[in-house]
Fructose-1,6-bisphosphatase class 1 (Devosia epidermidihirudinis), 317 residues
Amino acid sequence: MTTTLAQWLAAQPVDPKLASVVASMAAASIDIAAELRTASIAGHTGLAGQTNVQGEAQKALDVISNDIVLKHIEQNPEISILVSEELDEAVTFDNGGAYLVATDPLDGSSNLDVNVTVGTIFSVLPSAGGLLQTGRAQLAAGYAAYGPATSLVLTFGTSVAVFTLNQNGEFVLTADNPRIPEASAEYAINTARERFWDEPTRRYVTENVAGETGSAGKRYNMRWVGSMVADIHRIMMRGGIFLYPLDSETVSKGGRLRLLYEANPMALLMQAAGGRSTTGRLDILDVVPTDIHQRVPVILGSAKEVARVEGLYRSLD
Ligand SMILES: O=P(O)(O)OC[C@H]1O[C@](O)(COP(=O)(O)O)[C@@H](O)[C@@H]1O
Ligand SMILES: [Mg+2]
Ligand SMILES: [Mg+2]
């Protein structure tokens, strides 16, 4: 029997208003998926000619995706605050809504022009907690992956559900409560940054490359899509570890990836699926934000691999 997203949301033991927030983000992702399918025909590719608050050149599709999310959020009176990678400041709505959404409307946008999987990431928090809450306060999190199929992966904190967009434009449940294997032999890191790495990262990768001849004692494989959503979705479905650690080039910024709308939602999803997350020294979910666009080192995935990296940080610090 097929379970649609609407049926699944109605069956969850959560406030229906919270479920409506997730439904709004799912609806936004359906519109973004449609936009991406024909963007190159419509000429919606390339740079938008603006930079965001983080000094990154915005792609036309970053801006379009942000506008789509904004449109859906404005229509939902339960959402009173929006934080977006593409908006310098948080947007507040005078509607008394109990929820805050933090989002990366289009993740991995450097992959757009080559038709590689990109995504949308979001986190839902109580708006009463203000802008700077830790990841532990999240009430829901999810991402959409726009690949060969459009997948939507959701959690309200305890388990994860995976939906696939069908030919009628409806999300249907395709994996209920997938569990990330504790052990894995696949890692994801941008090795072109090796000269900037800290010692624990260098040691971890060196051990993996040594495979069965080194202290890890088994052969590893490496995968790096360069879209966090695509790399995390692979880990969600078959295990592995993703690393964007603090390195000598990103240290002044605090890391590469953003805490509120990239690291925290992915950390909650990983935890709900039996995985782990860390900055190397601290669970990502415990990092106290000081800025809505704060960056953070990100290491997450299969529990035993994350523990191995944490062990290296402990012993080499
Ligand atoms: O360019 P690099 O170093 O491979 O970094 C890739 C990382 O940057 C990101 O593209 C950052 O996200 P945005 O595209 O939303 O800015 C991640 O998706 C990805 O994991
Ligand atoms: Mg991103
Ligand atoms: Mg983005």
